[in-house]
Amino acid sequence: MCGIVGAVAQRDVAEILVEGLRRLEYRGYDSAGVAILDTECNLQRVRRLGKVKELADAVDSNPIIGGTGIAHTRWATHGEPSEANAHPHVSGENIALVHNGIIENHEVLRSLLIERGYSFASQTDTEVIAHLVEWELRSAKTLLEAVQKTAAQLEGAYGTVVMDRRDPDRLVVARSGSPLVIGLGIGENFLASDQLALLNVTRRFMFLEEGDVAEITRREVNIFDLNGESVEREVHESNLQQDAADKGQYRHFMQKEIYQQPSALINTMEGRISNDTVIVESIGAGAADILRNVEHVQIVACGTSYNAGMTARYWFEALAGVSCDVEIASEFRYRKFVTRPNSLLITLSQSGETADTLAALRLAKEKGYMSAMTICNVAGSSLVRESDLAFMTRAGTEIGVASTKAFTTQLATMLMFVTALGKQRGVIDPQKEKEIVTSLHQLPTQIEKALAFDKPIEQLAEDFADKHHALFLGRGEFYPIAMEGSLKLKEISYIHAEAYAAGELKHGPLALIDADMPVIVVAPTNDLLEKLKSNIEEVRARGGLLYVFADSDAGFEECEGMKIITMPKVDEFIAPIFYTIPMQLLSYHVALIKGTDVDQPRNLAKAVTVE
């Protein structure tokens, strides 16, 4: 992984390919490369370790003129970050290839290919595919046939694009577990791992399904399914904005996306709530019948989406009266589990391509779940296409690796869904529904108020300049919000941070408390506030340094060793979403002080399309 761009056109494609890689930089990567067939059908390859700018400078200094090419940004899985391991990879003088994913049987295939006389120039699993294609082409009639034969030998996940210099007007792509999209032009066609890469050249896209192999020329796109049968895929018109990859007035994409949350939440709720009700039909066709029969909810997600699911669990049980389990997708898919009667599977994912979550969905279909719904931000993604219901978050393109607006829109979407579920089951009456919907209407304005605390939180962040550890505490539905705050801090500032349910302090974490361990507490006024105050006193008694985010009714007074950040009072239904904002701002400003790469933190990728 991580980013793929390809083009077959009459015009020179070098700038299109490099610009496409720029638009995919948000995914995270360690090297970049491009391969283009020049006017004499020679294979020209340029690779660079580091940023796309290094590749762009190299291409500018030695321009490559040609209309067929592929490009890639790599995030290391097999082999260290290096120019030798960067894509595209080649086999001989003819075959060039880029690949996202992991080939699990690459060692067996590598040994077989060495026996056949091939030598390897990299440590990657990808080079195995290039040599396999070259081998199959010795007997295959076409590049398409060679790629189909190669795909049949691969185990694992891949989105791969192959180019043969002897057939200069054609690309062949194959998809299994790693997303690929085809962009349709006039007398030219494109492909990418994300449609954002191609918005400057087309708005019309086809999404490849699992097992598809496609042959792309300037004028034709021919797609074949897993059985080799010719198939048609629907053409979608994208409404994504080209300027999504522009920071505008903001210093970082993460900062921009934090401040986009009020408008993102308006988009999330538009057409889904009226003055006093949640519109059940907005969830999808047949949603009302499904919701009436739900007796249990199983949420499966990863990372930030898992924290959103953990928050929603409190809502499902307290508001809708439905039992709810939440599990990390990479654990769920590899354990034996019992499917409860009339259980609804909900997958949460920003990208809709998270490998473990997608695998969990496919497994659940075999295990007798009543229905499957995804809450997702990317229309046309695999989770959306393969689920029975898709409740889109409409957050807009999120570039920063550390998720912000995707998280808060997931929470708002879940709250609307819980309300609809409770209503269909007769648990939430019209008055309670009206109270929840009123709170949702207030949410964008309340988020604006939370963003107004940016300057005080920026000053607070200075206390973390020399810190290497932090502890986040919360109770009830604010425990997952503490988890998300902890995750954000560790992701972008590289401070080791942990989150605990505050009642667990006596069971181990108190041993860590000292003046060098800041403790961040999410403490709005609710039924657990007095219990939380007792936990806070336990920290104070041991010399801990406390930062308490509380509302004006909580009754905290600042004193030595304890700083109070007094937030506005908000309705209990939306309070978890509201208190996410100061956690995001704190992490952002601490990262600035630490001097880290906020948008592309080390070792992380935006879309995790491999295990």
From TrEMBL:
Top-level taxon in the UniProt lineage: Bacteria
Recorded GO MF terms: carbohydrate derivative binding; glutamine-fructose-6-phosphate transaminase (isomerizing) activity
Cellular compartment(s): Cytoplasm
One of the GO biological process terms: UDP-N-acetylglucosamine metabolic process
Catalytic reaction list: D-fructose 6-phosphate + L-glutamine = D-glucosamine 6-phosphate + L-glutamate
Record bears the keyword Secreted: no
InterPro entries per the UniProt record, alphabetical: GATase_2_dom, GFAT, GFAT_N, GlmS/AgaS_SIS, GlmS/FrlB_SIS, Ntn_hydrolases_N, SIS_dom, SIS_dom_sf
Keyword Transferase in annotation: yes
NCBIfam families: glmS, PRK00331.1
Protein's name in the database: Glutamine--fructose-6-phosphate aminotransferase [isomerizing]
Species whose genome carries this gene: Photobacterium indicum
Gene: glmS
